[in-house]
Write a structure and sequence with these properties.
265 residues, alpha/beta, Rossmann fold, 8-stranded mixed β-sheet, 22% strand, globular
Length: 265
């Protein structure tokens, strides 16, 4: 287990674009200033419709205490916005970090992207579809991607199978992805694996949603078939929300694994 050898400092509510609260980010950094540290940008979950950066203070505190600069971002949500606008704003946030993070102790050449649930989907989508960073005006700066119980890696397959059922989530998802099957395909990282140029680390709960347990091994398989670097670990006994809330404890071993991944790359 990695020890927490740093104290941490929080810088709150910095604006990376112009949509008010939905375009704010928080930075958690080690208090020491002896070097520039690796950066982890976190995209929160919430079914693309809810939640906010502030909920994940514990990730920021714990990563900063372990020597990483952690950036938690807000982004625009449904029903006012759909997935593309969310992705474009996530790319804007990453550009802001690339341009500005050295002022806050982060290394702009050592940026990793992390997401939980819907945030995992957005992290993969922004990383894999070149149009998002192209619109932001930068080359993809992501050294590696960390997906914690990601939902929607193949939103096309999910909606195709569920749209005519009594699935309670479908009406909300259609607000995000519309009823257009072309949009479902465009929004599916599973269909853009050929664009991956960096390593992936994935964690999945043993008791999570069936769609996640079905899609993540297939995503891993397709990455390996395309000679991409990827790992997938199943955390037994954990449900979907517990996959992120377990990290409130700084001694949770997911921190060790994530830091090993970032240090390696």
């Amino acid at each position: 287990m990695l020890s927490s050898c740093f104290s941490s400092k929080k810088i709150k509510d910095l604006a990376y674009a112009d949509k008010g609260e939905r375009n704010l980010l928080d930075i958690y950094r080690p208090a020491n200033k002896d070097k520039l540290h690796d950066v982890i940008i976190f995209i929160h979950g919430g079914s693309w419709r809810s939640s906010k950066k502030d909920t994940y203070w514990f990730l920021g505190r714990n990563f900063a205490r372990k020597g990483k600069v952690f950036v938690a971002i807000n982004y625009p949500l449904a029903p006012d916005y759909q997935y593309q606008e969310m992705g474009y704003d996530c790319a804007k946030a990453i550009k802001w970090v690339k341009d500005s993070i050295s002022k806050y102790g982060g290394n702009p050449d050592r940026i990793f992207l992390m997401g939980h649930s819907a945030g995992g989907h957005l992290a993969a989508l922004v990383n894999q579809d070149p149009k998002y960073f192209a619109k932001a005006g930068i080359k993809n700066p992501i050294k590696g991607v960390i997906l914690n119980d990601p939902f929607g890696l193949d939103i096309y397959q999910y909606l195709k199978a569920q749209i005519n059922t009594d699935d309670e989530y479908v009406p909300g998802f259609l607000q995000v992805f519309s009823k257009d099957e072309k949009a479902w395909k465009d929004a599916s990282p599973m269909l853009k694996i050929d664009q991956i140029k960096n390593p992936y680390m994935m964690f999945v709960g043993g008791d999570t949603f069936p769609a996640i347990k079905q899609q993540t091994p297939l995503f891993e398989q397709k990455m390996k078939e395309d000679d991409k670097e990827v790992s997938l670990d199943v955390i037994e006994g954990k449900k979907h929300i517990a996959m992120i809330t377990q990290m409130i404890f700084g001694w949770n071993n997911l921190y060790d694994r994530i830091i090993e991944f970032t240090d390696k790359h």
